[in-house]
Amino acid sequence: MAPGMAAGQELKLPLYGADAHVGVTSCSGSTCHGAVEPFKGSNVLQNEFVTWQRDDKHSQAYAVLQNSRSQRIARNLGLENAHTAKLCLDCHADNVGSDLRGRQFQLSDGVGCEACHGGARRWLGTHVAGATHDENVKAGLYPTDQAAPRARLCLSCHFGVSSKTKFVTHQIMGAGHPRMPFELDTFTTIQPAHYVVDDDYRKRKASPSGVQVWALGQSMSMQAMLESVLDGDRNRYGVFPELVTFDCHACHHQMSQEIDLRWRARRGVGLPPGTPRFNDANLVMLRVIANRIDPALAGRLSAATVAFHKSVLENFDRYQSRARELQGVVNEMVRKVGGHGFSKDDIQAILTGLVTEGGNGELFDYASAEQATMALGALISTWRQAGGVDAARLEKLNAQLERCYAATADDELYRPADFAAAIGGFRDLIR
Ligand code: HEC
Ligand code: HEC
Ligand code: HEC
Ligand code: HEC
Question: Residue 150: CB within 6 Å of ligand 3?
Fold first, then answer.
């Protein structure tokens, strides 16, 4: 499969498309997307460039490759420079081939408009001449409005794609690269919005709900992780499996912590003490979703999850075949979730499921607690939009959510008991 292509999908990611990238400057004229204030009466804001340049970290993605941290990473990896290395540029810039760079294209623009919206050579003209969204998509505009293509796009940089050059390994993290936690709905929300989803927008484009975006993001994140586990180019490093898909804090924690913060058995994992554990935060979320929308599938997911975890104690071949079995179930989850319209009652049940997992100790690990916190954020805001909560209850829910954020604010200072108390506080609020 070509990099950036998913099974059954013809859609190419912007980095791998055939259309030339005209450059951020081509989009940033003051009557195009470079206005200082939003335009009245236009169906798009037209100040997208200013938002991106001023508030969006993507505009700084290239610049960070020149800072001292990047220089240190490059040195540790034996690279000449971070800002000239393809390994770094494929995620920190719009690194298309030189034949696909228009006259105004500049690599130093970082993750620019076309790194997400696709090379504009064909759609640049049509999209200002009143073409419909579908026509623009046919002319190469990447459909960032749809949840699945958006998930694939963001994950291609916030996790990596199936090619050995665009992937942050444990070796790169060991050299100093930060950990890369990701949740599609939260990240969609915290990327400073340069668009407004209003009635006009909903007529023109897909506008999946937050819970749909969250659930699909969970399934597709897990798909991406399993793809890397099954990719011969990046699934092992000598005698060790590639550690980046394992729970960082299973290894990286102090040995002197109080006893109640130390290792604890988890039913959903089934491993004895002293074993590196696959980062199963997404799997816990998927179990909660499946329990609600397809209990039979949930049963198979739990069984395949435990078998996969245990295979790390067997041998590499077993680890691979169990990963493949789990992948089959996760692929089913992607289809199931993609076709499910989540109701108000679904949201409430999923919230209850999540809080129950917290009570059962399944969110004990930092990575799971961090994912659960982002999940609570996505679920509560969609619950409100669906009319499930009044203002008074919303205020209490948000205060409780703040406690979860506080408990997971710093992975080095994380105390499982604090998070358990914070998530436990939701029990009465979601009845
Ligand atoms: C698979 C994509 C990918 C690759 C490859 C990659 N990065 Fe990153 N990098 C990211 C993402 C995504 C983040 C943001 C993580 C976050 O904050 O959620 C990031 C963050 C960083 C940061 C922290 C930025 C900040 O604002 O503090 C530095 C420094 C960095 N990367 C340097 C590098 C260097 C140097 C290389 C090459 C050796 C590299 N990266 C390769 C995706 C990648
Ligand atoms: C990190 C990815 C990313 C980058 C970089 C990015 N966008 Fe977007 N953009 C999105 C997403 C996601 C949406 C919302 C979904 C959609 O409408 O397609 C969006 C929506 C839009 C819209 C649609 C508004 C509407 O009402 O239909 C415009 C216009 C736009 N972006 C312009 C730009 C411009 C101009 C730049 C560069 C200055 C840019 N974007 C950079 C991801 C990105
Ligand atoms: C071409 C690669 C690329 C793509 C595609 C991409 N990102 Fe990023 N993103 C990055 C890098 C690199 C950074 C870190 C930049 C920095 O710190 O300067 C980043 C940072 C972010 C941050 C800031 C995180 C923080 O810690 O503050 C958010 C939010 C984000 N991305 C959301 C998204 C979303 C949502 C999408 C999909 C619509 C997306 N990104 C697509 C590369 C990418
Ligand atoms: C199976 C255990 C294991 C797992 C899981 C693991 N690491 Fe490591 N990590 C190590 C070992 C061993 C070293 C090498 C320590 C040394 O060189 O002193 C290391 C080194 C590092 C280093 C550089 C040295 C240091 O101690 O700061 C960083 C940073 C790092 N890992 C981050 C991560 C991140 C992020 C994850 C999760 C994505 C992760 N590790 C998962 C075992 C692990």
Answer: yes
Q: Is any atom of ligand 4 closer than 6 Å to the C-beta of 69?
A: no
Ranges of residues in the chain whose predicted pLDDT is under 50: 1-8
The answer as to whether 363 is a domain residue is: yes
The rounded Å distance from CA 161 to ligand 2 centre is 22
Q: Look at residues 163, 190, 207 and tell me which one is the last residue of a structural domain.
A: 207
Report how far residue 354's alpha carbon sits from residue 273's, in angstroms, rounded to the nearest whole number. 25
Pocket lining: 248 vs ligand 4, CB cutoff 6 Å: yes
Are 113 and 163 contained in the same domain?
yes
Alpha-carbon distance 215 to 379, whole Å?
10
Distance of alpha carbon 288 from the chain centroid: 18
pLDDT recorded at residue 6: 46
The answer to whether residues 173 and 273 belong to one domain is: no
Contact criterion met (CB below 8 Å) for 220 and 153 = no
Q: Model pTM greater than 0.85?
A: yes
Distance CA 182, CA 220 (A): 11
Amino acid 243: pLDDT: 96
* Number of domains the chain is built from: 2
**Residue 128: what pLDDT?**
84
The ligand minimizing its distance to the Cα of 60 is 3
Cβ–ligand 4 contact at 246 (below 6 Å): yes
Using CA positions, which residue lies closest to atom 34 of ligand 4? 248
Structure tokens at 264: 């604890």
Candidate from 53, 144, 203 with most ligand 2 atoms within 8 A of CB, to mutate: 144
Distance in Å, CA 347 to ligand 2 centroid:
28
Domain membership of residue 234 as a residue range: 211-424
Q: What is the pLDDT of residues 241-282, one digit of tens each?
A: 999 999 999 899 888 777 667 788 898 999 999 999 999 999
| Token pair for 334 | 């992607």
pLDDT score of 313: 95
Task: Note whether residue 2 is domain-resident.
Answer: no
Q: Is 188 in the pocket of ligand 3 (CB under 6 A)?
A: yes
Q: Where are the beta strands (DSSP E) in 179-317?
A: 236-237, 240-241
Q: Residue 430: CB within 6 Å of ligand 4?
A: no
Same domain (yes/no): 218, 195: no
CATH number at residue 95: 1.10.1130.10
> Side chain identity at 38, as an amino acid letter?
P
pLDDT at residue number 3: 43
